[in-house]
Design a protein that fits this description.
Blueprint (H helix, E strand, L loop, with lengths): L2 H25 L8 H25 L14 H31 L17 H49 L6 H21 L2 H23 L2
């Protein structure tokens, strides 16, 4: 398979996934996961599927997953930079945007998912989900999507990829309410920009994982019994 044909196949797979996922979230019921363990199990399954597909599709276009950018700065600089970015993202998303959209769209009470933060003994499941699901899997998929659209369609394709990926990412959080879904969509856009700043998926992975861990700590502080 030529590189261009491999890219076409990748974009086709992405488009089919987006359509199916968006339809299920827009027209299906918004079920809150029934347990933290089930979330962690879902993360395991999703990670195997995503990593496998990304590896196969990148190989089909003559590339390797390493080309998404796994090199990093020295440990100290890397931790400081990604830590500050995660903190800034957390403030923008959860302190500013979520409050603004909650006031505009209604809400303010504890979200249904708060019930999953009652028992601190389940925190390891959340930590695993944040690092593997949020940090690794979602950012690997995002970097894959953006680079496929850019390589096939150029700069305009990259812009379209960022917008559509952010919208679909927001759809994935509709079960938390409309305000959270919009905030998550904007968060996805900012994470895309973090990846594109240095073309290093490892940066976005670290920022996303730390961002989610901050959210988990905050949720336990607010809702744990």
């Amino acid at each position: 398979m030529t590189e261009r044909n491999g890219l076409r196949v990748s974009v086709g797979v992405i488009a089919l996934y987006w359509i199916g996922f968006a339809a299920s979230r827009l027209f299906g019921p918004h079920h809150v996961p029934h347990s933290v363990a089930s979330i962690a199990l879902n993360v395991c399954v999703r990670t195997v599927i995503v990593v496998g597909l990304v590896w196969v599709l990148m190989r089909a276009s003559g590339e390797t997953v390493r080309e998404l950018g796994f090199a990093r700065d020295g440990t100290g600089r890397f931790l400081i930079r990604t830590g500050l970015l995660a903190l800034g993202l957390f403030v923008v998303a959860n302190v500013v945007l979520n409050n603004v959209f909650s006031s505009l769209l209604g809400g303010g009470q504890a979200p249904p998912i708060a019930e999953l933060f009652r028992d601190p003994r389940e925190a390891p499941y959340w930590i695993f989900s944040a690092i593997v699901g949020g940090g690794m899997t979602e950012e690997l998929a995002r970097a894959f999507v953006l680079t496929r659209f850019e390589k096939l369609f150029g700069r305009s394709g990259l812009v379209v990829g960022i917008i559509l990926d952010s919208i679909v990412f927001g759809f994935g959080h509709l079960y938390q309410g409309n305000a959270s879904a919009i905030t998550s969509g904007i968060t996805g856009l900012l994470l895309a920009l973090i990846f594109l700043q240095r073309r290093r998926v490892v940066d976005a992975m670290a920022v996303h994982a730390l961002f989610d861990l901050m959210g988990i700590a905050t949720a336990y502080a607010l809702y744990a019994r």
